[in-house]
Design brief:
By secondary structure, this protein is α+β, with helices and mostly antiparallel strands. It has 4 helices and 7 strands.
């Protein structure tokens, strides 16, 4: 998946996969010469948990980072944080989705979740964002019962650490 060595920058607290709060990582890769920051829990969830979230959804936000080494300008980043917080508080906390990872850099922000159902997610998303200004996002759904996308991300980062 990545062409360059991955640098693990630090630990963060993140999603609740089991009864304990697992620790996550923030990792950095370089894609086309630009830094890309990933945030995820460095733990593959158990089969029962994965079975509840068979669909993968990627919320993508393209932005102009040409003046900031491929990273979003502060005002754009602040809006991205508002969006991410709304997704967590209004959708994830209801059990409709679970955060898998996020990436920021090279002119692209992606928020990646596993979900139970496409229509349920879209309904919750529209409700969660109904009072927000327009976000320039694209939403793409995938079948990923085996969580292959996340497994590949973990493998790539574990090879680089």
């Amino acid at each position: 998946m990545f062409k360059h060595l991955i640098l693990i920058l630090g630990l963060i607290s993140s999603m609740n996969i089991n009864a304990e709060e697992p620790k996550g990582v923030i990792g950095e890769v370089y894609i086309n010469g630009f830094p890309v920051i990933y945030k995820f829990v460095n733990e593959f969830p158990n089969e029962d948990f994965r079975a509840n979230y068979p669909r993968l959804v990627v919320v993508s936000w393209n932005y102009d980072g040409s003046q900031n080494n491929g990273m979003p300008e502060n005002i754009v980043n602040e809006r991205m944080i508002v969006l991410e917080d709304a997704l967590e508080e209004k959708i994830e906390d209801l059990g409709i989705s679970t955060h898998v990872y996020s990436r920021t850099g090279n002119n692209l922000k992606e928020l990646v979740y596993h979900i139970r159902d496409d229509d349920e997610f879209l309904k919750a998303l529209n409700s969660a964002l109904s009072a927000h200004k327009y976000y320039p996002i694209k939403i793409t759904f995938y079948e990923d019962k085996e969580w292959k996308d996340f497994r590949e991300l973990l493998n790539d980062f574990n090879k680089g650490s």
